[in-house]
Amino acid sequence: MSNGILGVGLSVPVAHPNYADLGAGIDNAVAAGVPFVELPLQSLDVIVGARLLRHRVAEVAKIVADRPARTTLHGHLGINLMEEPHLVGLHLDVLKANIEVAHAIGSIHLVIHSGFTRPLQHAAIERAYDRQREALASIAGMAQEAGVVVCVECIFTYDKARHHPLPSRLATELGLVNHPAIQATFDFSHGYINSTLHGADFLAEAQALAPFSKHLHLHDSFGRPKDFWTYTLTEDLAFGAGDLHLPLGWGDIPWARIAETCSFPQGVVGDIELQQRFWSELPQTIREAGAFTASLRTE
């Protein structure tokens, strides 16, 4: 794309324990018309005890190399660089293994979730942010040498016993790390929900994080926390509650206002994370995602 966007991708599900369905998933994404796929490392059993099973990594790399799509990689969801001091080293080792896998399969972006902390006292929260910054800074050189940009994803509070950063705080932390290999994944639905939880202005939050956001997660929601009981996912849909991973346009994320008011970096990949039950809407979602990314302003 001429505006500095590299392209639109699609997150590919993997259910088979030996990733026998991975190739078909990539093929289906390519046939749908996207130049990128995002692979789920959390579903690929290629890391054990923070070390690579290199023969299995090679098998995945071969599946990827035989296909035309470029790849990004979603790292392990459990990585938490704000963990308690006695655990953060283990999480850092798993992150390093994630970077190795990304390099081995040629993925340009590695998505990890922003950290969270259970203690809610201010001093403990700030110490946790210190740990995350130090960890990210420590692997920045490794990531850059591997040709991988680590993109830290904004998430939201899954329960009231955890502290998660707002998009603006994540932007502040990335600014302090200040390294081209450590950037952001802007999951718009996550940022929207977390802004609602904290009573923050979502567009202001988006403007803060956008300049770091080389990776985007594209799916829709109503920014409404799931803080009440429903019986099924269909009922969640009826109430518009939670992180629904809807087709673009089904929720009320202000896509046009984001494009009008935010400025993004060069080299952005916009990845569609669509709930599989809505894949009948994939062709239209790809068109909507392409139109949105084409409308973005980049530095």
Tell me briefly what this model is.
The chain is α/β, with parallel strands linked by helices. Helix content is about 40%, strand content about 15%.
Work out the count of structural domains.
1
What is the H-and-E element order?
EHEEEHEHEHEHEHHEHHEEHE
Q: Identify the CATH architecture.
A: Alpha-Beta Barrel
Shape: globular
Radius of gyration: 18 Å
Broad structural category? alpha/beta
Give a description of the structure.
It is a single chain. The chain has 299 residues and is an alpha/beta fold. The chain has one domain (5-221, 247-298): TIM Barrel. 42% of the residues lie in helices and 17% in strands. It is built from ten helices and twelve strands. It has helices at 22-32, 54-65, 85-105, 122-146, 167-177, 188-198, 202-209, 233-239, 255-261, 282-294, and strands at residues 5-11, 36-40, 47-48, 51-52, 70-74, 109-113, 149-153, 182-187, 213-218, 263-264, 268-272, 297-298. The strands form three sheets. An eight-stranded parallel beta barrel has the order 1-2-5-6-7-8-9-11, surrounded by six helices. A two-stranded antiparallel ribbon has the order 3-4. A two-stranded parallel ribbon has the order 10-12. Helix 1 (22-32) links the parallel strand 1 (5-11) and strand 2 (36-40). The radius of gyration is 18 Å and the shape is globular. The two termini are 14 Å apart.
